[in-house]
Amino acid sequence: MDWETLNSTECVNILNADTRRGLSDREAQKRLKKNGKNELIPPKKKNLLLRFLSQFSDFMVIILLIAAAISFVTSYLQQDADYIDSIIILVIVVLNAFIGLVQESRAEKAIEALKKMSSPHACVLRGGKLRNIPASDLVTGDLVQLKSGDMVPADIRLLESHDLRCEESALTGESLPVEKNAAQRCPAGTALGDRKNMLFSSSVLTAGNGTGVVVATGMDTQVGKIAGMLSAQEAPKTPLQLKLAQTGRWLGLGALAICAVIFVMGLLQRVLPLDMFLISISLAVAAIPEGLPAVVTIVLAAGVKRMAAKKGIVRHMPAVETLGSASVICSDKTGTLTQNRMTVTELWTASGTAGISSADGQRVLALSALCNNSTQQNGHYLGEPTETALAEACRTDKSELDRQYPRVMEIAFSSSRKMMTTVHRLPDGRFRIISKGAPDVLLGRCQHTGVTAQAARKNEEMARRALRVIGVAVRDVANLPPRREDCEQGLSLLGLVGMIDPPRPGVKEAVETCKQAGIRPVMITGDHQATASAIAGELGILTERSAAITGKELDALPQQELEKRIYDYTVFARVSPEHKVRIVKAFQARGEVVAMTGDGVNDAPALKSADIGCAMGRGGTDVAKEAADLILADDNFTTIVAAVKEGRGIYDNIKKTIHFLLSCNIGEILTVFVGFLLGLPTPLLAIQLLWVNLVTDSLPALALGVEPIEWDIMKRSPAKKGESVFAGGMGYSILVEGCLIGSLSLLAFTIGRLFFDTAPANPIVGRTMAFAVLSLAQVAHTFNMRSRGREGKAAESRATRRSRLGAAAAICIALQSMVIIFPPLAAIFKVMPLSFGQWAIVAGLSLLPLLLGEVERRWNRRKRVDSVKQQARWQRYKKPR
Ligand code: ATP
């Protein structure tokens, strides 16, 4: 149907829509059943088998498969018919691929759930009531209200439009917004981009507001017809994941190089080539941390889920890592730091301060209720809190006022303009122009009289008491000015309305947490400087060491100068969304990692340029949500701080896992490599190495990854931008601990071989002891990773920590013992049951890393206490930044 060629009444009739009450719930249900959900059907996913096979495309897994093949060929050539090695390798690789597949599906599900949570909603008239419903429930014939910042939820024929502009680049490729007009009718064959009376799904409203009737949903929309656009979205890899994949590849290549060297050296020493092959391959297997990518993905996915439970919805995985290093949080005031529950408490009129219920006061409020887009439902007003507060304070019903003074025109409010204007027809045929907005802006449009000067003073005084002040001005005219913008000139100021908006509970504490965590909280607001400063002072954002600056002053400051002085300010008042980008850039130029909140269409550039863009889940526009990395489901500042804490926790746990796995791998390499250099028979066989690597390593690594957050995580400074995961001495620790584990298992091997093996050329007891020590020492080493936990007061979290890590350790110990004690398994793994004395030696050696770790921890704690004391002394002299 060519809806653009019909007039609006024809469209409404064809669709059986009702412009007064909207569709009934029953009718909507019926249509939903018939036409299906308003969703684009994504292309089919790869089937399970293909996804399973794709697990084997990993570089590390390929090396393992090569190892299996070589082991198979070796057994075959040796004609020992002992294929068990290669079978075990295969079983372990398949098991690993299976775990990978399960994890991948889990991560995908988590991402899908996230997508659902941030899916757009639509404001629709159903059964006579305005409702906010998921866009997927829209049906043809629904009446939809749209405003600037909304994503168009379906194909819509406009019925009414005010100043409407729409960006349709998703469909037409044209990035400049086009004007839309409900009154226009298009001839048949008009190109998509020129259909002025239509809105198309997936485009974005950049200005104005309007209503329209849904004409097509789901795959019937224009965007649904462009099938190629629907590519399944993959979760982007985080910088850390990319870096790890790269490190993994380098480790793999390095291992292959070592293998080649050893192989050649072995040949020179006249060792059998096939034996050399096995040693080399077992070494390669030991060198590669196969479990790492899987564990990192699990840790990230689990963290994202935890964040969602705390109302922080992550849209891009990389944001999780960046969150952990956030060092500046720039937050809007209204609704994020404050409750956005406005109540009118004070009124000033040109005739002097007037009570809210006085006749003068009510006249100002009635005008503000007319120049107002809130709607009445069940005796309450819905809409912008500033506007509902004004309508509620007015004793006359808004609908009654609207009937008496019908609106003929509107110039919409925007955060940049900070005012709005409506034009109403008076009973005598003339027009009344009503403007309301920030007094400092409004006064510039008013005729200058004694009242304006008085009003400016009163505005300052009210703002200093943390009141949000709205000015109301009017002008009656016989004929409307030819240009719209001329309506907003020569107005007469009638009064100022003051309203309170109390801080959100918990914000003050969250600000304090930020400060302790080395994060700078900054307030950015469209509100008056005095109002902003009063609230910022109350919350602890503005202190005697920092200052407030206005958008106007910012305009006078060149960017370079702003960068230099950026640390002087913690409050930016009367700013427009455009200023936010400058503030982000200035902080970034000083090396800070910036989180920035935003809700409007114009906030999108700032959200994109910030390191972490945070959009408001409730009050935010679809455009802001699309541009953001994190959506705050409750629009709350404390949620950002909680998300930063989670982000730090996740990064910390990933670091622990990397630390653990790499130190274990180094231990394994050293055991085999040094054993070989010393001319000993290989201390560990390929399947033993694989077992330790893929089975007994993985569980503790996983447990470490999901550890509760350390109690002092928000008392540390943020990680530096681009800092390596190995920073802070971690690389050194990995090396030292790896050497320790390697030496211990070599020692066990030597003891077993020299004292217990009857045939040292085939050191089965030595290998069994080395195998046991390698695996058990690693289990003990896990407990070294939770270095700071003991110091904290978080007894409760310690209990869970103990139980998780404890369970992982217990399972590993049981598995490892079973392999050695249970004869059929012992035969497969080429080990033998140990005597009591041998077990005692194994236990003693395995516990050593834990003992040494404890000594190191105590030593570090002492050092830390000293340095904290020193820092405190230094802080007293340090000048504020
Ligand atoms: P924040 O940026 O922290 O959310 P804000 O809500 O005060 O702060 P804006 O919404 O940009 O920022 O509002 C800026 C100013 O515009 C307000 O201080 C107020 O004076 C005025 N204002 C706000 N809402 C309206 C409205 N609906 N109509 C007219 N003026 C308004």
Molecular shape: elongated
Over all CA atoms, what is the radius of gyration? Answer: 34 Å
CATH architectural name of one domain: 3-Layer(aba) Sandwich
Measured as a percent range, the helix fraction is 40-55%
Percent in strands: 15-25%
CATH fold call of one domain: Rossmann fold
Oligomer: single chain
Number of helices: 31
Spell out which ligands are present. Answer: adenosine-5'-triphosphate
Structural class comes to: alpha+beta
The largest sheet has its strands arranged as 8-24-23-22-9-19-21-20
Q: Determine the N-to-C terminus distance.
A: 65 Å
Contiguous runs where pLDDT drops below 50 for at least 5 residues: 228-235, 788-797, 874-881
| Mean model confidence by pLDDT | 83
Number of strands: 24
Q: What would CATH call the homologous superfamily of one domain?
A: HAD superfamily/HAD-like
Describe the main β-sheet briefly. Answer: 8 strands, mixed
Organism: Hydrogeniiclostridium mannosilyticum
Subcellular location: Cell membrane
GO molecular function: ATP binding; ATP hydrolysis activity; metal ion binding; P-type calcium transporter activity
EC number: 7.2.2.10
Q: Quick summary of this structure?
A:
It is found in: Cell membrane. This protein is an alpha+beta fold and 881 residues long.
